[in-house]
């Protein structure tokens, strides 16, 4: 809570009533005659044309899925096709007033939105820009296909390009908009402002908020439209996204031109169903979806239901809502009423709705009714409409032929390059700043109180006389992270950071102390307690071109951002065909002292997910160097920090932590102590237990342990570890993660495979117990202790002369515990 806003009990405790205003429902009443001042005849016809293109595109896919044929052309498409037959007016109405600066996000059912937005972009762009978009996209590979033998103007060529790029993508062809790695549910095309469509229901709910933040924070033109289904209103990320998007601080605390609401429309494409669950009347309680806006903020999100079966009603709504966003009074909630005539997917048996219901909606078919109204108003003749239908069918037949021809539209050649998808998981960029410009800061860096105070600190844990430095004088682990972060804030104008208690408080563990003084609100702010949206918005911000640090206060809370961390953050770079970069650093603090729900090390979960880089430094020198690398990169990084060592000083790098900038490459384990007799590899804070063990081994048993700090989990260079094992013949691995399924088990398995011939004993893993983390007073029975490591060495690797076991780590015990699921 900022001190500038005083919460006065005399005011807050006063009795009052909350009053809700009216939410318009289907209030559009204009006739075509009345709309003639807004649309030329050409415009009216274009709307019809665009709806029809979508209808025919989806009809073609439906026929392919259900009959393996369209217009005499056979094809088998085994993948998904969630069609939007019936929803065309809502898509075209949504896209009609948008240009390429306006970004749309969507769901699994987005073919219609892609085509509508693409057609709208083609209409807006001049021919030169259009041609250069097509020519520059993947070296013009899709353009070459549609350009061959084409006769006509650039705009028509671009329509062919749009249809081909989308269809080739749906059929997983390399010429598709995302090299065939997105497919039907995820296809998108950023040059036309079409941003990721998400197969996780509600997945766009928070990502699009991040995109709107990107526009606001970086003064970019345009708005963001989050197109999601009605059933996604039941999803956490959507609610969190709405909460994040409507925070008061944009209007109360953000300064100058940054003050004001986000340029964002939550546009619910309300077809009244999930798959088979009926939202109004069965699975939700809102009756009319637009009602939800009423409870969110005093503006009721300018919520409105609009008749999405009338394209002009939707355009009218978007015109009015865009004005609201222009006045910085957003975000807005639109409940765009529609109906899908097609099944959820072509295999849908429609067991959840009656034939009569579907027929009733077919009677009101938006294309038919809109076409008739154009004819009645004398705007167009039936013949012209028929011609549009014939031309579209012919065009789609052509596009289909091109898209399914294996020679013209091959798939990625995994035979020739088996690693080609693997190589797309990361962009591996190294960029000082994501964009040129002067970073906005409040004071010069050297006037920052924390920066000044750090200049007086000892950057090594012992002073010149070899005496340990007091905590007050010590440059600590948290300071290493701070130095990397503040440095980047003064380098990269796009860098923004958010999370719980990031501002004023200075981050829950004081890593950010000093940043509040340095940065305006729009670069550092407190988020709601919405871990999903903290990560989701960071993803949206990153994929639009900004660099961002988001913070998860405790590792245990990662589950709250499960989908964002598992499905979104790691996947979009590859799913885009490497069009998208993801310069997103997620700081995750691993707790202790606070018991079962605040002390878990879940690093293995994140390391298991392809597409994330995962690091876990254990010293201030490594923390600063690795954070610099994370913030120089263009890939998503999960940056683990152990709360047990935030105040530790640098004990290994004898020159201490350098004041200047340096990077530590990801993936390089670091030998913290040299030795010949046994290798001990640790991840995270357990390093300090290992050092104690190494001392005991040396002093009591004359054994020299080589201590390796993994530092990174992904990527990971095995070579130095193998080298060490070749020398010692023995390895023990230890970390604070519960043993079962930990990343150490992965490393030990790989070492077994790579260094079996040199091993005198199997690699042994000592992790935490497979229980809940108990209270601080009992933690020594949970986290790996020096005795446990010594026990394991004695029992499993090499007997230590005269050693007495402290715990039972026998084979029998291991079998018993596993039998009991412990
Ligand atoms: C998180 C998640 N849960 C379930 C599904 C399976 N699923 C796919 S679409 C769908 C219904 C979505 O309904 P809605 O959001 O209204 O979009 P619509 O399909 O009606 O366009 C479901 C349950 C999913 N893809 N993601
Ligand atoms: Mg729906």
Explain how this protein is built:
- It is built from 28 helices and 20 strands.
- It is an alpha/beta fold and 822 residues long.
- The protein has a seven-stranded mixed beta sheet, with helices on both faces. Strands 4-3-5-6-8-7 form a six-stranded parallel beta sheet, with helices on both faces. The chain has a five-stranded mixed beta sheet with strand order 15-17-16-19-20, sandwiched between helices.
- Strand 7, helix 12 and strand 8 (332-337) form a beta-alpha-beta unit.
- Helix 4 runs parallel beside helix 5, helix 10 (236-245) crosses helix 19 and helix 24 packs across helix 27.
- It starts with 8 loop residues before the first helix and ends with a helix.
- The model has no long low-confidence stretch (mean pLDDT 97).
- The protein binds thiamine diphosphate (TPP) and magnesium ion (MG).
- Thiamine diphosphate (TPP) is lined by residues 107-109, 199-201, 229-232, 271, 273-275, 344.
Could you give a short description of this structure?
This protein is of the alpha/beta class. Helix content is 37%, strand content 12%. It is built from 28 helices and 20 strands.
List the main descriptive attributes of the protein structure presented here:
28 helices, 822 residues, single chain, alpha/beta, binds magnesium ion, 7-stranded mixed sheet, binds thiamine diphosphate
